[in-house]
Amino acid sequence: MVSGKTVQSRRCPRNCKQLRGSSKVFATGLIWEGEELRRFQTNPKLRVRKPARRSFQLALRRAGEATVRQFRSGFFTVIATSFLTVIAAVTITAQNSTVLKGTVTDETNAKVAGAQVVLFSRTGLRLTSQTNESGAFVFNELRSETYIVEVKAPGFAVYDSEDLKLEKGQTRELEIKLRLAGINESVVVTATGTLQREEEVAKVITIVTAEDIEAKHTLSLAEDLRGTPGVRIQQQGSPGSLTTIRLRGQRNFDTAVLIDGLRVRDAGDINGSALSLITDLAPIGEDRLEVLLGAGSSIYGTHAIGGAINMIPEIPQSGLHFSAGFEAGGLATYRERFQLTGGSDKVGFEAGASRLDVRHGIDGNDQYGDTVLSGRVQFNPLQNINISGRFYGTIANGRVNDNPFALPGAFNSSANFPEAVAGVTFQPDFNNPDQGRRTRLLVGSGRFTHSVNDRISYSIAESPKFFNFL
Q1: Statement: the pTM of the whole predicted model exceeds 0.85
Q2: Residue predicted with more confidence, 395 or 469
Q3: CB 165 within 8 A of CB 149
């Protein structure tokens, strides 16, 4: 150990040198007070450093190790080699994979073309296909695993199959018959974090589909959930004012908000919740909303005591699809939106944007604007590997009113409960031109999912966030 303190730093003059063979070595020294008086560095390629750091490097050399940079390079080499080994093993196994194919018809045995077929594995993978003009679909090079088939088509109820256990090298055919639109059966992922059907979930799950959202013509996430059993929505004024969501009577910050299973919260909130972000959230490009009623803290953290709201993205369909819309209504409200999706069996993407403008508001001076951006891309290099990325952002501006407050007339009255008279006993809220609210939320996430077999799978996800409140 080195003890003491530096009292002088001295560098040898230019003619101070030692000869070792034909090489020239310059000496640089530090004079210390304490147990160790001098320490010299004789390597001309290294700068003078603190003794503790130099001693660590010297220890590495004495142990026969390379430099720290070389160690990191070797570490990443090991990781890359392991990853390539896994890919090679999966590729070899894929040569003996199974095939799942089938035909989709309606109740009159007519072929249903253009239906979206999604193949879910119990380990979290999702593969997509689309029926051709003959109503047929096929999934090749599958692993030996348990799957669930989900089929969606306009005008028909969502179809979910029973568990399909596929063995190695097996070719299985399905005959799927769709019923007219009615009660849908859906698979959910919010209850336990893995794929399950609704009847398999012990907790209370409510699903709000994209069709429900479209039929309501709502403007925000809170409005989409209004009327859902066990959900209480409170909005403190015009669109853009403070909005809270309470699940099963719990506190407003006991509700967790998830985007594709990854939690979103305000780092500046004292409770670490998403309370300040709920006002500006609006689904765009979402397949459904899953509302978990009851404690979900074991999966999504301590702020999911009341439950969780999960925004599940839409799975891109094969081909290229574009939609756009414009709406106008009371309070001088306008909304524009567009969405673009496309892809193939291995690659898919989705991009969308919406803009909400409230020109007047309730009292004629409650302007509010909210821009929502969303994008998602997924890639399936193999049937047991899924790589996906997601982006979601909101940029909002709104006018803020001062809160009502009591006037002296309310305290001078002899009545126990003075009558509320504007300008006499209380001052109602009023528009303050010097106050406003500007928020910006940007969320990005990446996920890598690999199903090794029907018993082992893993997923790696990263979700950086940026939130700004002015």
Answers
A1: no
A2: 395
A3: no
